């Protein structure tokens, strides 16, 4: 009856890592084990109920036999008082039969009562062990889910820093640097062109001013 519980204790202890290595889902397996334990407990409860019923049946037969012993004893007395010795003898003979039955039922009932007590005790142990396994199962399920989450996160993080991703970032960085260099060169060319235009414009402006200044000096007789 308790071989399965022993198997569960072994599993939730040393065999959890082995289950993980075999790609078995420990959460589903623990749930399955708990369902099987519940079935074992229901079977044990039925066995206990049958044994208790058997004990009660034997107790009733014992009580009936004892009652008949007392009844035949009283009937024998009544028959003797009535002067019917033959009837008294038959009553006493029947009394002996019931005494034998009572003794047999007494032995059977004592054994049945002891068996029922043992079964009730074992059932209590099974339920206690089941409760312990249930609490341990919840803890193991939480640990398994946490381990799977950590594994998934580690895989995701390792893929982020992979060679392919890193090379891709480096290529993009080179492109950005190239774009920036091209933009700076374009700015320099534009500045250079703008500087030449400004100097030429300045020359034109200075020449016009010189001509106007010469004309003004001539007019004033300053030459």
TrEMBL record:
Region (Disordered) location: 137-169
Pfam families per record: PspA_IM30 (PF04012)
Basic and acidic residues biased stretches: 137-148
Transmembrane segments: none
Top-level taxon of origin: Bacteria
Family, per entry: Belongs to the PspA/Vipp/IM30 family.
Protein name per its UniProtKB record: PspA/IM30 family protein
Organism: Bacillus aerolatus
């Amino acid at each position: 009856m308790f071989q399965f519980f022993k198997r569960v204790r072994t599993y939730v202890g040393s065999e959890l890592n082995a289950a993980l290595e075999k790609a078995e889902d420990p959460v589903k397996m623990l749930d399955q084990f708990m369902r099987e334990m519940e079935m074992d407990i229901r079977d044990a409860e039925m066995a206990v109920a049958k044994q208790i019923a058997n004990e009660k049946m034997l107790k009733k037969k014992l009580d009936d036999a004892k009652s008949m012993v007392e009844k035949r004893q009283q009937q024998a007395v009544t028959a003797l008082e009535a002067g019917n010795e033959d009837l008294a003898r038959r009553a006493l003979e029947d009394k002996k039969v019931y005494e034998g039955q009572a003794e047999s039922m007494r032995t059977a009932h004592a054994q049945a009562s002891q068996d029922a007590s043992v079964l009730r005790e074992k059932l209590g142990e099974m339920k206690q062990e089941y409760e312990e396994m249930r609490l341990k199962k919840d803890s193991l399920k939480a640990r398994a889910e946490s381990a799977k989450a950590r594994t998934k996160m580690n895989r995701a993080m390792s893929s982020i820093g992979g060679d392919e991703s890193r090379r891709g970032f480096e290529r993009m960085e080179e492109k950005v640097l190239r774009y920036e260099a091209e933009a700076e060169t374009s700015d320099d060319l534009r500045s250079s062109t703008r500087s030449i235009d400004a100097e030429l414009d300045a020359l034109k402006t200075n020449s016009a001013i010189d001509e106007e200044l010469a004309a003004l000096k001539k007019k004033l007789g300053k030459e």
